[in-house]
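Q: Structure tokens for this one, please.
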Amino acid sequence: MAGQVKSRQRVVDHGEVFTAEREVNAMLDLVKAETERIESRFLEPACGNGNFIAEVLRRKLVVVSSRYRRSPAEYQRYAFVAVSSVYGVDILEDNVEECRDRLFAIVEKDARSAIRGAVEQAFLDAVRYVLGKNILCGDALTLKDADGEPIRFAEWSMVTGDLVKRRDFLLSELLEGNVDKGQTLSLFGEKNNVISWEFDEETQAYLPSAVCEYPPVDYREVGRNG
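A: Here is the predicted structure, written as tokens:
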């Protein structure tokens, strides 16, 4: 169990046991093709300090580096896509902070190795910002964040060139609305006639309408949207 627990008390209080690297890789290898698809999205609902999503991000960046290392601009654009596709929730704030820092360090190290001195500070700032929105402190069972509000995740979609569009969704709505095309939507999909479902071509599934939508901006300036 060495390296799989931080303390006995945390195991007692929160049932916290971290998955070992061997098991992480064995499980991810079951969906190997998806872990190597730059834009495919992963959510870890009890992410701890990020064992699963850190490995997913590493695999994605291997692909980014192999394809785009000769072009700093393209490398940074697709590395942004990779990092914006991983999501995590954990009930403990220290795990969340550690996970964000861990993922940021993975991106920064890979970028400096792949494109060396061409890494833009604006790119790193954008990565840090996205991780702050994608890795959240909350309870995936109650679907509430640390403040007791519904967990809300941002979807980042490259529109054209360096422009990225952000749409925010409630996690509870996403889990209930993700129905394949042609299937029947959940009876609870429309709450008080407020939520409407839309077929999303990218995911090939029905998703609820976004609770907030932002105009496209250069991905290096995503922090402008607050």
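A few notes: The helical segments are 8-14, 21-28, 32-35, 51-68, 72-84, 93-115, 121-134, 171-177. Residues 9-17, 178-195 have pLDDT under 50 and may be disordered.
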